[in-house]
Write a structure and sequence with these properties.
Layout lengths: L1 H53 L5 H45 L4 H31 L7
Helix pairs in contact: 1-2, 2-3
């Protein structure tokens, strides 16, 4: 009878851990997008920096302005990646805490709730940084005649 109770308890904890695992999957996909954007920013900055070293022309002020914008975008993406990674780590701790509390038969619901709220705040912060970076990227693009 004790084995059935243990198995049902573990099964229940697995059911509780499924939602955070799906959230973790979504955050992982978001991190992939953010890292891709960071690599594109870095590639563009390298092209502009090498162009600035190679020529001294009338385009230099515009290129320097674009480099400044790219630097700001890279800082925002850095913060977004850091916050989303923090979110993912906190979600992992939530999942581990669920299993540990089940094994120890301890009530750590307040701690788990706090960790989950912190994870959501980190995700919100990461998404706000991402949104700001997208806004900067779109505002720096000029399509059509000037």
């Amino acid at each position: 009878m004790a084995a059935e109770t243990t198995i049902s308890t573990v099964a229940h904890v697995i059911q509780l851990a499924v939602a955070p695992v799906f959230l973790l999957t979504g955050v992982g996909a978001l991190l992939g997008v953010l890292i891709s954007r960071l690599s594109r920013i870095i590639d563009r900055a390298r092209v502009l920096e090498s162009a600035l070293e190679a020529v001294d022309s009338d385009h230099t002020p515009a290129w320097r302005s674009e480099l400044s914008c790219l630097a700001l975008r890279s800082r925002l993406i850095h913060w977004a990646i850091s916050l989303c990674t923090t979110c993912a780590l906190l979600i992992c701790v939530v999942i581990a805490a669920l299993f540990i509390s089940s094994h120890l038969a301890a009530d750590i619901s307040a701690g788990v709730s706090l960790l989950f709220v912190l994870a959501m705040l980190a995700l919100i912060g990461g998404l706000v940084c991402f949104l700001r970076e997208i806004h900067l990227a779109i505002s720096s693009v000029h399509i059509g005649p000037r």
